[in-house]
Amino acid sequence: MNLATAEKPRKPNWLRVKLPIGEEYRQVRNIVDTHKLHTICESGNCPNMGECWGEGTATFMILGNICTRSCGFCAVATGRPLPADLQEPKRVAEAILLMKVKHAVITSVDRDELPDGGSVIWQQTINAVRKLSPETTMETLIPDFKAEEENIQRIIDAAPDVVSHNIETVERLTRSVRIQAKYWRSMETLRFLKKGGMRTKSGIMLGLGETKDEVIQTMQDLKDNNVDVITIGQYLQPTPKHLPVHRFVHPSEFAELREIGYQMGFDYVESGPLVRSSYHSDRHVIPGLGRNEWEKATALKAAIAAKNN
Ligand code: SF4
């Protein structure tokens, strides 16, 4: 089916989002602007920005806002990045301290042109946040660092609470969706992080043309690489220049994948149309939280079913 001529699927009502308003949102806005920081919330047109900023949290993007890669789903600019800003670790740490956030998420563009892939700035940023805000838990959504262990080891040494790297889509679509990435190389990065004792996390987007079986196979591949946390959300086309949406997945299918994820053994499964990798990420740092809630709900459902029989 030629997608270019096919009818664009209409956005269903379950993807309606709250507009960003309120004092908390304005404060985050102000801190981000005064500290000249980039957020993936803005660069990525995240639908949850209103909710997250309204709760006083944001996902900071370090190493600039120009990426050396050109993933077909991503709204971040591609091109020749500016030199790394050595003051950025300090500015991010100060902003997080100012925001008094209980939990911080940090991500970055890919800097394949740098010999260390940007991992030194990453390590300095994590250490700077730890120093100023020792009580704040931290998730770091990192690039694949081309699975180069020396660069990944810098993240492990800084020991964030959760280290995530998104597989984004199924193996068959990786070449067209994440042009410069490799499916199994990303698995390697996740495996090395786990070997280093990290709590690991990865995310998949649906609606890019994958089949349900392929999604379940990708979940199994992540589980086989001992990933603890998985997020599953709906792909939304940032601009007409980006990959088209093949379909809007119904919330019931996300609920089914959530069940499958827990049956596979994931410790936390965040699955829903509006889910993005850092959505509710403060809950993902707590081992057993998601699984215990799922087990309790499953037992309750079984008890009610047994009572009704
Ligand atoms: S690596 Fe891909 S997803 Fe990440 S910022 Fe660059 S273009 Fe976007």
List its traits.
TIM Barrel, 12 helices, about 300 residues, binds iron/sulfur cluster, 8-stranded mixed beta sheet, about 15% strand, about 40% helix, single chain, alpha/beta
Please tell me about this protein's structure.
The chain is α/β, with parallel strands linked by helices and 309 residues long. It has one domain (13-308): Alpha-Beta Barrel (TIM Barrel). The protein is built from twelve helices and ten strands. An eight-stranded mixed beta sheet has the order 1-2-5-6-7-8-9-10. A two-stranded parallel ribbon has the order 3-4. Helix 10 (251-264) links the parallel strand 9 and strand 10 (268-271). The longest helix is centred in the last third of the chain and has 20 residues, at 289-308. It is globular. The site of iron/sulfur cluster has 8 residues, from loops.
Biggest pleated-sheet summary: 8 strands, mixed
**DSSP summary: helix tally:** 12
CATH architecture: Alpha-Beta Barrel
Q: For the record, what CATH class applies?
A: Alpha Beta
Number of domains: 1
SSE ordering = HEHHEEEHEHEHEHHEHEHEHH
| CATH topology value | TIM Barrel
Number of E strands: 10
Q: In which range does the helix fraction lie?
A: 40-55%
Helix vs. strand class: alpha/beta
**Cα shape:** globular
Overall mean pLDDT score? 91
Strand content: 5-15%
User: Which small molecules are bound?
Assistant: iron/sulfur cluster
The CATH superfamily bears the name: Aldolase class I
Order of the strands making up the biggest sheet:
1-2-5-6-7-8-9-10
Q: What is the CA-CA span between the terminal residues?
A: 47 Å
Radius of gyration: 19 Å
